[in-house]
Amino acid sequence: MTNSKTDTAGLTAAEAKRLQEQYGKNELTPRKKECFFKKALHTICEPMFLLLIVAAVIYFILGEPRDGAIMLIFVVGVISIDVIQEWKTDKTLNALKDLSAPHISVIRDGVERTIASADLVPGDLMMICEGVKIPADGVIVKCSDLCVDESSLTGEAEGVWKVPAENAEPTDDYWRRDYCYAGTLVTQGTATVLVDRIGSSTEYGKIGAHVAAAPEEPAPLQRQTESLVRLCAGIAALLFALVGIFTWLNIPDHSFGDRLIESVLSGVTLAMAMIPEEFPVILTVFLSMGAWRLAKKQSLVRRLPSVETLGAVSVLCVDKTGTITMNRMAVQETWAADGDSCALCEVMGLACETEAYDPMEHAMLAHCESLGLSGNDLFSGELVREYAFTSELKMMGHIWRRNNRLVIAAKGSAERILTICDLTEEERETAERKITELAQEGLRVIAVAAGSPASEAEIPPRITDCRLRLCGLVGLADPPRESVKSDIAVCGRAGIRVVMITGDNGLTASAIAKKIGMPNSDRILTGDMLSEMGDEELREKVRNVSIFSRVIPEHKMRIVKAFKDNGEIVAMTGDGVNDAPALKYADIGIAMGKRGSEVSREAADLILMDDNFTTIVETVKDGRRIYDNIRKAVGYVFTIHIPIAFASLLAPILGVAPAALLLLPLHVVLMELLIDPTCSIVLERQPAETDIMDRRPRDPAAKLLTAGILVKSVLQGLSIFAASFGAYLMMLDGSAANAPAARSMGLTIMMLSNLFLVQVNSSERDFAIQSVKRLAKDWVMWAVTFGTLAMLGVILYSPLNGLLKLAPLSAPLFFKAVGIAAAAVFWYELVKLVKKLRPDSEM
Predict the structure, then answer these.
(1) Band of the pLDDT at 470, cuts 50, 70, 90?
(2) Which class would CATH give 299-325+481-611?
(3) pLDDT tens digits for 699-718?
């Protein structure tokens, strides 16, 4: 426990550092560091690497230590690529975790700044407001309308109204009203809290010290890739036995031991070629790197599987204020019922919080300031009572004692304020007509009312019991963001329906919707109408209603559920405490990073750091790109494994001697040195295709490996196999003496085909030349291209060729290999041409 330091300047940076050294981080359990060697061991235990090690051991048993050593060097190289890639992935994920970690505002060195909640120390002055999950225990220095949900600690559902420590009455209760507790939730108001206890010393920490995090379930994509690997491993086991038998029959002149080892070696080569161990790597790398790229674009992904779900979004439910509009409220027009605008604005100011945190109240107080009504003038009296704002009431009020006279100042939704005003029929009609006029201009309409009780005894207990006089209306403008109109058009072309859900007046929302070009902008469903509907009727209504007005957070859950029941994939934005259930229920919950509550951020899959609608659209686009690239990588892995597997399978069946095979185990490892970086680095970087936002959302139930992708992969793989194996057989000409040169030819064609394959499969629609132009400035693509050519140069034209059982190719033969490889891959460009000439065909 610290001393009661309440200096408004807070701690200095030096004091905070010293206290953190003394008390540690504000965490229940410190983050565990995973051992690097444990990760490396986990990689080595993968089936593919176990096979590689078995092959190296067999070479040593065969009395060929040189081949065994080369094999082990290659094994270390491939394992290093995987371990480094996993390390980079973990580093990326940890960086994302740090970005998404809870933050809190504190006073340090006399300045308000935002820090990670884990960096809080005893003695800090933290600023809390509605929607914040309190990160530490502390004494309330000052507060305004502070209500805290402490059910996580006490089990009591009712919110606790807090008071500053100086106003607290002595009590024997364990749970104090002048104290805030870690793990509880601010449901209303603001406060400055002096941190007293952190981490496991807090009440929450004492209770939750032994609670372990639940293990995460594998995502659908992970399950799909795991089943694909298991299927391929099963096929590999069968073919392993088949190739072993054929090799055994092909070498009857060998001794039993040599015959057995050669047979096992041939089987191992094929099994290595058949197991696509890259699939799990592809998934992890693509999702984590995709999340990192999104973070750079102001979209913070909290749950990796949601990255691929983004591409399937068909309905986008967004709030109006701050997402579609700029969240820069300004009073644009006022209408005083009695013609006295100055009196109207004074009551409006009195109805605002003395320490305003709502953008609308900031705008109102700024307007008062422009009329010469400063905060000191407005709030110089005594605040007798408050009527707190709730989402159900949609209005609030303050009762002030000014110049020995009581004044009730109330403001809120025009429809609700009118219900507590005494108006003649004519006055009501005039007010309602003016409300409609202001709303049709796209203004947010707030009604202001006042009353003058004779004494405190006559003050009504609830705002709904008041009978007030209508002072007038205030029209606030929040202009749409400049880019929203074009973004809505992009969503329309992409088959994504944009739906506006707002607490504002329906006419105001409709006017904004018309300005930004939203379809069905004249079809409005109000919260009251929604409350009277059954779920089945709501499901029918949401098919063509695009604006839901005057909704309370509970309605949002029903709207999301109705869309999901209609088979839509729903992305939902939210910022408040009560939005959390709807965010959780949506397929993609998107929390606002700037104005969102900590609770909504915890419930969301995605945090929008700039609260910008354009960022949502860009995020969906990137989600589609990531999923496209995952599919391209899966197809690539199948394609490139087919020639390796078929060459390993067919050579023994055709009676080729084990020493003259096209691919020995070390050559399979050589190919893996190319395949691993290509599928996990090169294909992940592929830019979005030009038409990516002109397609309908993908079916979320669609398999990762579709029949179309499989057919294309098989045809491309067979083409490369026919080209490489055919050239190998022609040069072999039945003589084992020709094996090194024939092997060089076949391997060169495979490696160059791998290079061309990336360009051809970069897009399903654009030609390879267009892909090359797009990637011309990408240094990774140049590195891969020159790296492949350099590797070919080293294995063919350096002393290593003898160790690798290869022979150098003459210039004519090398260029012949280039031509054969190009023909084996670029035929698919003709398929693209046919598709372009037939617009009705499915791409």
Answers:
(1) very high
(2) alpha beta
(3) 877 777 788 888 998 899 99
Confidence band of 464 (pLDDT split at 50, 70, 90): very high
Cα 670 to Cα 657, 755, 774, distances in angstroms: 21, 14, 29
Assign domain 222-282+624-689+698-837 one CATH number from 3.40.120.10, 1.20.1110.10, 1.20.1530.20, 1.10.8.60.
Answer: 1.20.1110.10
| Cα 825 from Cα 833, distance rounded (Å) | 15
Residue 272, pLDDT score: 56
The pLDDT tens digits of the residues spanning 91-147 come to: 655 655 555 568 889 999 888 898 888 899 999 999 998 878 898 999 999 888 788
Give CA–CA dist 560/588, Å, rounded: 11
* E strands, 242-394, in order: 299-301, 315-318, 330-336, 382-387
Q: 10 Å Cβ neighbour count for 82?
A: 22
Phi, psi of 514 (to 5 degrees): -65, -40
Residue 691: which of 768, 617, 765, 614 has the closest Cα? Answer: 765
CA distance 238 to 243: 9
Handedness of CA 507, 508, 513, 514 (dihedral sign): positive
Q: Give residue-wise pLDDT tens across range 726-735.
A: 999 999 988 8
Average pLDDT, the chain: 82
Class of domain 13-26+120-206: mainly beta
The CATH code of the domain at 336-475 is: 3.40.1110.10
Distance separating alpha carbons of residues 367 and 331, to the nearest angstrom: 6
The residue type at 682 = V
Q: What is the largest CA-CA distance in the chain?
A: 117
| pLDDT above 80 for 580 | no
Determine the Cα–Cα distance for residues 549 and 505; give it in Å rounded to an integer: 6
By mean pLDDT, which of 489-493, 700-704, 802-806 is the weakest? 700-704
d(CA 730, CA 718): 17
Phi, psi of 65 (to 5 degrees): -60, -30
Domain extents in the chain: 13-26+120-206, 222-282+624-689+698-837, 299-325+481-611, 336-475
Residue pair 759/832 in contact by the 8 Å Cβ criterion: no
> Which distant-in-sequence residues (6+ apart) come within 8 Å of 162 by Cβ?
140, 143, 146, 147, 148, 177, 178, 180, 189, 191
Query: What pTM did the predictor assign?
Result: 0.71
Q: Are 843 and 835 in contact (CB under 8 A)?
A: yes
